[in-house]
Design brief:
2 domains, 17 helices, transmembrane transporter activity, MFS transporter
Amino acid sequence: MSTTADASAPSAVAPPSEAPRSDARALFAVCAATLLVLMNYTAPVAVLPQTARSLGAGLTTQTWLINAITLGLAATLLVAGSLGDDFGRRRIFRSGLALLAVSTVGAAVAPDAATFVAARVVQGAASAAILAAGLGLLGHAFHTAQGRAHATARWASMLGAGIAIGPLASALLTAVGSWRWLYLVVAALAALLAAFGGRLLAESRAARAARIDVPGVLTLGAGLALLLVAVTAGRTGWLRPAVLIPAVLGVLLLAAFVAIEARGRAPMLDLALFRRPDFRLATLGAFFTGLAALGPSTVLPTLVQSLVGVSALGAAGLAFLWAGASFLVSNQMRHLGTRHTPTRQLTVGFALTAIGYLAMLGYADAHSWARTVPGLLISGAGSGLLNAALARLAVASVPADRVAMGSGANNTARYVGSALGVAASITVASSLLPAGHHGGFSAHGADAVLLLGTLTAVLGAVAALARRRVPAPVPAA
């Protein structure tokens, strides 16, 4: 196994008394950028109706207004992690911040839905560089189990904080001005972090020749895009050519991606990592987290606005409850993380997610947003456990010179699951309409979304429990 041997690593150049300060600076820079990424990621959630009206977007296009950034993330996270390991994690991290600033200005001034969607896809690619390289930088900076548990829990708490702040800030700025204002704020902050945040970080890279896996990038990106197109188009029927053709082509391209990675000399995903039980658990757990926790929760504010009649600010407040609970629990795991195995955290996290969804059933029929509050707090706490466990597993389940690749694989699985979860949730919510009604959402559809989330959360818990039955590998002498 090769290890990182970069002379610029803080552990190699800093005296012991300075190492904790250097680690703290790295943690601050990475957490600030992660918070910004998630604020931008969730910006449209509470103001989707207003954004759609401004851009002239129909119901199907609204799915893309939310999912475009997720597509960019899912398609480029693996390559961003691989590039970070090979060309320098700080370099990729700062490049991602610069690209986020530029693309976010594009979203702010977009004249139509197509331009906005294109800008959000580029934002996703920028966010992928920040997330994959950022978590890789933390994996390089913190070496002990306790240090990594502390750092990754802090990082995971920023996911919840960003999800909490993004919709609320977007709704507030929309109320006093325009939904476009938040993107200008994000662009300015990203530019500042790109300019000055790099000074807080030490460069690190793997000790191997750097190559770009172009065939892998193309087949993975195109395959995921076609699958997402198929799931989104399924809203009006699953057996139509518009659904079946992209679905089949997407599966074929993803199979080609696996074949390319298996034979490539410098793959962006080392398939040998899947021989590690913890890596398999991290990847599968991340996929179910996106599918079960992120997908339905992302759509919920729009459903509450449409079916219960709350304002954009009220919907943002509900999202804040869910994400606030996630933030508090993830942050607390920096003290408790090493006392509980990631497997146990994942199992409990999925169980709480399922319980929270069941507690919200019937809110639309009752026309009561208050019915969602207990369930939001419970499922949000479950999301916090999932985020903390997955961040810890992402860096601990791979060799030291593959930490950004591990982060890329983990977050790819998470956002592929999220993209599919959002598309499936909107499809389900808009397909179960009463006779004679066309367009929009229904109360039955809202309950079906919660039941779908419950089922996928239970499957995630089962997958985590199955890992507990696998004996841990015996360390080599």
